[in-house]
Design a protein that fits this description.
Largest sheet: 2 strands, antiparallel
Distance between the termini: 7 Å
Shape: globular
Number of domains: 2
CATH architecture of the largest domain: Orthogonal Bundle
CATH class of the largest domain: Mainly Alpha
Structural class: mainly alpha
Length: 328
């Protein structure tokens, strides 16, 4: 197990380094003038020269990349000689729009994204797995066809349509207040109440995947020899399905869940934008509109980190949950 973890962590570090190289090239080498993009639409020549110097664009490309990587471990100073701004490690860059380190912006926005991702994940797992289980046990019947039909329909609907429909029906028609983020520590009830719309929107879409996947895995598992043996011993059908059938169907669900949650923790862009939630997704959209490349690069690397970490966790949990897999 220890050797397996070391190999996976080594592979994760290598992948993260590759992501860093690719994203740096995309954001700082492909654009004709990254300083002009960071400077904004209304940029004076003096401000442009200052940003070019602060970004280190007057250095060679290897030196620029080296400075960025070094900033991740030891921090970095941004300055033009008259004013120096320190970005502490791990430095993901410096926003010249707000005059603060990118990591500070990400830390401020992450609780919003985390709240949306965790709440919606709980809902889609509960509804998706339970409906898939019922559908599998009633395979071929009207209940099965209804559940599969609803899941197929919800899977085909875009997030923006579901979110807009919730706002129109409940806020515009029924007078429910428009959601806004409230800190959990300040008001737990208000925190949950204002996140219901984002939670339901994401759960409605994602639960369809888990419904179909659970049904497929359960139908296959319930045809195995050990299931017939369990039934032959006289075990109740509920115990056969829950303890034996569902356990065999869990490993693929764990894999998909880990990847979905990791991606959402990097920013639920469309959902946050629809409901005006100040999370990482909204920060990424705003950085695009402001042409704020350091922030966009930082959010991209932050999201990539969660996706890679989700892969690592999923691999370990999959190996521990599936007796057919050996962690060598």
């Amino acid at each position: 197990m220890t050797r397996y973890l070391l190999r996976r962590i080594t592979a994760l570090i290598a992948l993260m380094a590759a992501v860093l190289v690719v994203t740096f090239a995309i954001f700082f080498l492909i654009p004709s003038n990254p300083a002009l993009r960071s400077c904004g639409r209304y940029c004076s020549p003096e401000k442009l020269l200052s940003i070019e110097h602060k970004l280190g664009l007057d250095k060679s490309v290897p030196a620029q990349f080296g400075s960025y990587v070094a900033g991740l471990f030891v921090g970095r100073d941004y300055g033009d000689g008259t004013q120096v701004d320190h970005c502490p490690a791990p430095c993901l860059g410096y926003s010249f729009k707000t005059d603060e380190p990118v990591l500070g912006l990400i830390v401020d926005r992450f609780p919003v994204t985390f709240s949306i991702a965790i709440g919606s994940a709980v809902l889609w797992v509960l509804f998706g797995v339970s409906s898939g289980l019922v559908s599998a046990l009633k395979a071929g019947g009207n209940v099965d066809k209804t559940i599969v039909g609803v899941a197929t329909t919800s899977l085909s609907l875009p997030v923006q349509l579901v979110g807009a429909a919730l706002l129109v029906v409940f806020s515009a028609k029924l007078g429910a207040p428009f959601p806004h983020y409230v800190n959990f520590a300040d008001d737990p009830v208000g925190w949950a109440t204002n996140l219901i719309f984002p939670w339901v929107t994401l759960a409605f879409i994602y639960s369809a995947v888990y419904t179909r996947l659970t049904r497929t895995q359960m139908v296959e598992a319930m045809q195995e020899d050990y299931i017939r043996t369990a039934r032959g011993k006289g075990l109740p059908e509920r115990r056969v399905a829950g303890r034996h059938g569902l356990r065999a169907a869990l490993p693929p669900l764990i894999v998909v869940f880990g990847l979905d949650l990791g991606a959402l923790l990097g920013g639920a862009i469309i959902t946050e934008r629809i409901f005006g939630m100040p999370g990482l997704g909204n920060l990424a959209i705003q950085s695009i509109l402001d042409l704020n490349l350091p922030v966009l690069l930082g959010v991209t690397l932050f999201g990539a980190f969660f996706v890679l970490m989700a892969n690592l966790v999923v691999d370990v949990i999959y190996g521990l949950s599936d007796p057919k897999v050996t962690l060598k």
